[in-house]
Amino acid sequence: MNQEKHYHPLLMLYDVWHLVKNTFFLFIFLFVVQASSGFWLFTYGRFAIALLFLVVLLFIPVRWATSKYKIENKNLQLNRRLLITSSRTVPYVNIQHIKRRDTLFHRLFNITSLTLETSTAGDNSTVTFHVLTQKEAQEIEKQIRTNEKDNRTEISYKEDLDQANETVKIKKENDKYEIIHFSPTKYDIFKAALASFSFIAVIPIAWSLMSNLIQVFPIGGQLEDAFTNILHSWPWWMFLFSLILIILAAIAGGIILTIFRYGKYEIASDFEKIYITQGFSERTTFSLFKANVQAVSVHQSLIKRILGLAEVKLICAGDTGSDDLEANRLYPFLPVQRAYTMIHEILPSYQVTPVMNRLPKKAVWIQILKPSWLWMIATGFLYYFRPDFLGFEIPWWILSTLIFILIMVSGLLHFYQTRYTVNNQFVQFKTGGFNTRLFLSKKDKIAELQLTSNIVQQKLGLASVMVSNHAKPVMYTKINHLPVEWCKDFYTWYMLKE
User: How confident is the model at residue 199 (pLDDT cuts 50, 70, 90)?
Assistant: First the structure.
């Protein structure tokens, strides 16, 4: 059993840095922008923020000196002895996911941060070590995962997958094999920039920078005069050429933004865990245990379907994070076929079934003729307000008709694209209109099954199925207008759990 020890001394410097960062703009506002103000709120505010800053600054070394942790064989002990002694025990079996985050601060000192997501709820659902040496982080991760037995299995796992797919990259790190399933190429980055519309985000960023420049320097009138001269003196072809340059610059800026976000993205796995890494100056690695995966979901928006891309989400037990990087969200711009093959590579027991059943033809009438509250509300809004668009007065009934047509097309697409099947121990659903979603789950991972049938469905011999999977929050998947005979067989299949 290991000895109890203090946190890394650099944790105090890390806390000071965060204190300065969190209070910087408040100090600027009170002591610079409102420095000459005699208003009582600002006068007492300056005194209060200075006093609070000093108290927190003095408390940082006290908190470090009174806090310790211990790495044991079965659990992690977190202790604090100040006025009140507190102790927290975190069993390794309750840890669902592990996240490493290396900011610029961590990289300067060759340290790292480690966040452990547990299966408990509330404020104690996570354990965060803001500063750890690489060795300490590896020691904690080594205690969490299974040791010798799993290492032998990882070697055989590596050999089997290496023989099955020679293009898969394999690396050995910390005495375990990691298989790199995906890292984006330049062409992948370009398609991601188009699919994410990141080039559009360049426009508000450039406008914000220009607005700030005008406020700092008195050049607003000069820019307005220059723009007026351009409108009156430039021929049409120069406007067209300038517009093309602006579009190309926006696309280039969007590609740069995408590179900073996804350029070093990596999806890897070993025998028991999946690793997702992203970031340039700040590297974040989120790992989750494969055993916690409850289902797989493949999403495609309209633009992604046009570009042949998809996003894979792993529905997992426990919290999967709410930061920029979520553990259950793989690279959101994967080529469709690559996404399907990657599911099988990462989770060998999972495999997407290419052939699925279609809805019966009588289901199309329910899909098309069901009342659309969206169309009714939009029609009432258009009739009452009679809005105009860009100065053009368009009759309200034309806009209402266009909305109605879009809803009808969405309903037809939903009917033709909905699929369902059962393959041995797996159930697979596909739903959606302009956007589609493919759902794949094992029988033993389905927490609850519900069959419903309204009056219209009963007359047509149809029913709806809804399944739930353990997640945070619980995930519900529903598919409508299935043949009632298939629903009964599906219920029997689900109840015959092994």
Answer: low
Domain spans, the chain: 5-144, 148-183+264-346, 187-262, 358-422+443-495
- pLDDT of 319 above 90: no
Amino acid in the structure at residue 266: E
| Cα 86 → chain centroid | 34
CA distances from residue 389 to 203, 250, 382, 426 in whole angstroms, order as listed: 22, 26, 12, 50
Task: Indicate the residue type of 48.
Answer: A
CATH 2.30.29 applies to domain 5-144: yes
Whether cis (ω within 30° of 0) applies to the bond prior to 473 is yes
pLDDT at 152: 39
For residue 280, the model assigns a pLDDT of 73
| pTM listed for this prediction | 0.74
Classify burial at 119, counting beta carbons within 10 Å of its beta carbon; exposed 0-12, middle 13-18, buried 19 or more.
middle
